[in-house]
Amino acid sequence: MIVLGLTGSIGMGKSTTARMFMEEGVPVHDSDAAVHRLYAGAAAPAVEALFPGTVVDGAVDRSRLAEAVMGRPQALKKLEALIHPMVRREADRFVEEERRKGTPLVVLDIPLLFETGGTDRVDRILVVTAPPEVQRQRVLSRPGMTEEKLAAILARQVPDEEKRRRADFLIDTSLGMEAARKAVRDIIAQLTLG
């Protein structure tokens, strides 16, 4: 079985690309979705212990948590030290389950693949990319996003140029949906048909 790591900086089209793999029948583990599940259940008590007042009705309130860690690098490190291993365990279970089924290819959608040292968990790396102006436009159109928030997020991420250099596969999502879908199909064929 081949484990393909899917990553890319904020606003590069990672979620859309992950959906394309799913539409082609490739199982995908979405790290962001795993965080949402953990915040709604298993991780909530530990997050509340670290950051009192961030859990409401048994689930982490993401806006309260953002306030608790924004601009506080040590607080963010504590949160990541708690959450990243939980997400990793969930992804490992997903991979093992698919391996038992004999699945030829799975995708781990990991936004911070390079930043968290996750390259050892995958066989190949796909980076989704787009020109900086396209990225900015996409991200700033999100509700609640500001120039300051975008700058803070980008400061924590490995630069797009470095990600592209380290990739086995690249998809430029600014070229449109059909071009991206064709690239996804080509990657699947290359990895599963040899």
UniProtKB/TrEMBL annotation:
Q: Which Gene3D superfamilies match?
A: P-loop containing nucleotide triphosphate hydrolases (3.40.50.300)
Report which reactions are catalysed by this protein.
3'-dephospho-CoA + ATP = ADP + CoA + H(+)
Per the UniProt entry, the Enzyme Commission number(s) are: 2.7.1.24
EC class name: transferase
Q: Which InterPro entries match?
A: Depp_CoAkinase (IPR001977), P-loop_NTPase (IPR027417)
Q: Which PROSITE patterns match?
A: DPCK
Q: Where in the cell is it found?
A: Cytoplasm
Positions annotated to bind ATP: G11, M12, G13, K14, S15, T16
Q: Does the keyword Phosphoprotein apply?
A: no
Q: Which GO terms describe its molecular function?
A: dephospho-CoA kinase activity
> What function is annotated for this protein?
Catalyzes the phosphorylation of the 3'-hydroxyl group of dephosphocoenzyme A to form coenzyme A.
Write out the similarity annotation: Belongs to the CoaE family.
Q: What is this protein called?
A: Dephospho-CoA kinase
From which source organism is this entry? Chelativorans intermedius
